[in-house]
Amino acid sequence: MATSGENNAQNGVCKQRPLICSILDPNAWFKPERLHPQVESLIYWRDVKKSGIVFGAGLIILVAISCFSVISVFAYLSLLALFGTIAFRIYRSVTQAVQKTNDGHPFKEYLELDLTLSQEKVQNFVGVAVAHVNGFTAELRRLFLVEDLIDSIKFGVILWVFTYIGAWFNGMTLVILAFVSLFTLPKVYENNKQSIDTYLDLVRSKLTEITDKIKVAIPIGNKKPVGAAAESDKDK
Hints:
Mean pLDDT: 81
Shape: elongated
Number of strands: 0
Structural class: mainly alpha
């Protein structure tokens, strides 16, 4: 486990190099406590049967969309669902007539389900979305306008890697890979948290060491401390 000194050092590195920490810090990616309980239960496979059904159905839909048009997939799935509900409604009506029971509409529970969005929920969602957009925009501005030369160079390397990823995979393939990762990586990290954190800490420390050496060799964009700047002005 990391000591308090190591944690303080890592926090200092994160303040100076948010790009490194955001990519190599699994705690920034896997935080089940920040998720809705139902979402957390699904992607962490708390209920294997329910997660398996959602994962399988979602994967089949995404593969179908990659092979056919979105409109065709939506139309066929809607027809299948509609056929199933109509058949079930007719079956229940016939059984009620034969058994002379009056159980009511078979989908009464779902028809009475409240699907409206409250104004408070919408405002909370918009607030969270705006905060993320503002943070993302500020980070892009920092990288593109070269506030920190090393971070901008690393961002350029990431974009260069993305050009190869885009050449190897189309957009739908990346969506499928992201969906599979959503249902696998969180659980893998949860089961192997200690060993994964150890290796990532090693990689993060090596990257920090290399970055510091580069900054010493190319002192571009390094900001002088306020005290040092004041003393320099006094000397002049």
